[in-house]
Amino acid sequence: MYRINFYQKCQLGTEFATVLVVNKVLVKNSVFFPPTAARANGPAEVFADIKTELIRKSIHFLIALSPGMAAINYPLTVLGLMAGVLGYTIMEHLRLSGIKVPVISALTDMASRPRDRGNFVLGPVTLGIGALLALLLYPSPAACIGIYALAFGDGFAAPIGKLFGKTRPAFLFGKSVEGSVACFTATYIAALMVSRNFTISLAAALTATAVEALPLEDYDNIVLPLVVAFVVQLAMH
């Protein structure tokens, strides 16, 4: 009978361990599951992240009021968005200088993500600019759908992705399929309620989902409503 001595056992064990490590690295860094998707956070960290995202998206949803306000008084809505962006910018500079503005500074702190700590929180500024430019550049149906895609499509994508997201292919740049489905569904329903047209709604939903998946960070608040409104305007002609 063939016998394996102690040295050979150690050598085989080392080779087996090496194979396991190599396979683990290959899987973790594969095309379909990038390293950012492979990391697992603890329950406390995940809960805190979701809480922050829910606060941020609650503010996000408020931008959906702007098309209705514009229908009532367009000039006042445009001026209100301009004043809001300017006012927040001033208050954020005060916050960073150590001067706390009641309510606004507290909300900003609660809604800040790790990358925002100690920095200017850009999200509310780009949110207001995105809605403002959509209203200025496009007529009512297209601008309305673009802003609703920003408010609801992008608004639902992040919390759904963080709560239920498990599948994160590389072509979504670390974002989840579940979050993208939420973005598509919310945008489609909102666009359908405005346009009453299945083709236009599908075009808006596909566009919003594609833009939301891009690694634009806070600048997606500007790009998403403008691109969706542009596609909707084309689809209506």
Give the overall form: globular
Order of helices and strands: HHHHHHHHHHH
CA-based gyration radius? 23 Å
User: Would you count the extended β strands for me?
Assistant: 0
Helicity level: over 70%
> Which parts are unreliable, with pLDDT below 50 for 5 consecutive residues or more?
1-40
Give the overall average pLDDT. 81
Give the helix/strand class: mainly alpha
Provide structural commentary.
- There is one protein chain.
- The protein is an all-alpha fold.
- 74% of the residues lie in helices and 0% in strands.
- The chain is globular.
- 34% of the residues are buried.
- Residues 1-40 have low confidence and may be disordered.
Characterize this entry briefly.
The chain is mostly helical.
Protein topology:
Blueprint: H1 6-28, H2 35-38, H3 43-61, H4 65-72, H5 74-96, H6 104-111, H7 123-137, H8 140-164, H9 177-195, H10 198-213, H11 220-235
Descriptors:
disordered N terminus; 237 residues; mainly alpha; 11 helices
